[in-house]
């Protein structure tokens, strides 16, 4: 598969919330296909898995992207962690690969220092994807709960970071193949 085709793979990124999950569908690092928030009531994880399955059927992604819960930067509650851990099994049922991206890796895509706040990442995403601008929540005050729409921006950031990760892996493999001596030598 050529690098350009590999880069154009469609990804579905999921970011759990207390009420369900945010999602983003990307085709390549510059193609935002769809995004949104899905709510799940009662047995939230089971309902969320059903809704993710519906998104998979609708968008036919090649890769499911989730947060890497083993990363030090992951501060997820137990229910959200469990959902994230159940998603690779669902992906496998649908014949998809799963890519795990740490929050820190996603932040590094939008900041040279890696210290970007969620708000700064969201603003940077609206600069890349202007269609997200109407969904950017107002600045949060310290006493306010996080607006559920931030999960859209988190999902887009995880999806975008998965392409950056793929690009780095390809570059490393390319460098490695150049260093490996040919069998004709």
Describe this structure in a few short sentences:
The N terminus is likely disordered. The protein is an alpha/beta fold and 185 residues long.
Describe this structure in words.
There is one protein chain. With 185 residues, this protein is an alpha/beta fold. It has a single domain (3-138, 148-174), classed as 2-Layer Sandwich (Nucleotidyltransferase, domain 5). Helices cover 45% and strands 18% of the residues. The chain is built from six helices and five strands. The chain has helices at 3-7, 44-59, 78-93, 103-108, 118-128, 150-179, and strands spanning 10-16, 20-27, 32-39, 63-67, 97-101. The chain has a five-stranded mixed beta sheet with strand order 3-2-1-4-5, with helices on both faces. A hairpin with a 4-residue loop joins β2 (20-27) and β3 (32-39). α2 (44-59) runs parallel beside α3 and α5 (118-128) packs across α6 (150-179). The two termini are 27 Å apart. 31% of the residues are buried. Residues 1-5 have low confidence and may be disordered.
What letter string, H or E per element, gives the SSE order? HEEEHEHEHHH
Please report the first level of CATH classification, the CATH class.
Alpha Beta
Strand content: 15-25%
Distance between the termini: 27 Å
- Judged by helices, strands and strand pairing, the structural class is alpha/beta
CATH fold group:
Nucleotidyltransferase, domain 5
The count of helical stretches stands at 6
At the fourth level of CATH, the homologous superfamily is Ribonuclease H-like superfamily/Ribonuclease H
Helical residues, percent: 40-55%
Q: Describe the global form.
A: globular
User: Order of strands across the biggest sheet?
Assistant: 3-2-1-4-5
Report on the biggest sheet: 5 strands, mixed
Q: Could you tell me the mean pLDDT?
A: 83
Total strands: 5
Low-confidence stretches: 1-5
Q: What is the correct CATH architecture?
A: 2-Layer Sandwich
Oligomer: single chain
């Amino acid at each position: 598969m050529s690098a350009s085709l590999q880069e154009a793979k469609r990804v579905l990124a999921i970011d759990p919330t207390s009420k369900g999950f945010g999602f983003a569908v990307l085709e390549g690092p510059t193609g935002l296909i769809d995004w949104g928030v899905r709510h799940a009531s009662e047995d939230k994880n089971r309902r969320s898995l059903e809704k993710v399955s519906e998104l998979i059927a609708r968008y036919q992604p090649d890769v499911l992207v989730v947060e890497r819960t083993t990363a030090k930067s992951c501060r997820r509650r137990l229910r959200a962690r469990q959902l994230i851990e159940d998603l690779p099994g669902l992906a496998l049922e649908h014949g998809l690969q799963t890519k795990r991206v740490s929050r820190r890796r996603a932040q590094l895509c939008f900041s040279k220092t890696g210290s970007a706040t969620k708000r700064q990442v969201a603003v940077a995403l609206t600069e890349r994807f202007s269609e997200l601008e109407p969904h950017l929540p107002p600045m949060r005050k310290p006493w306010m709960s996080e607006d559920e729409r931030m999960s859209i921006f988190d999902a887009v950031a995880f999806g975008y970071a998965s392409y950056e990760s793929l690009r780095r892996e390809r570059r490393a493999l390319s460098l490695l193949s150049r260093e490996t001596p040919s069998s004709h030598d």
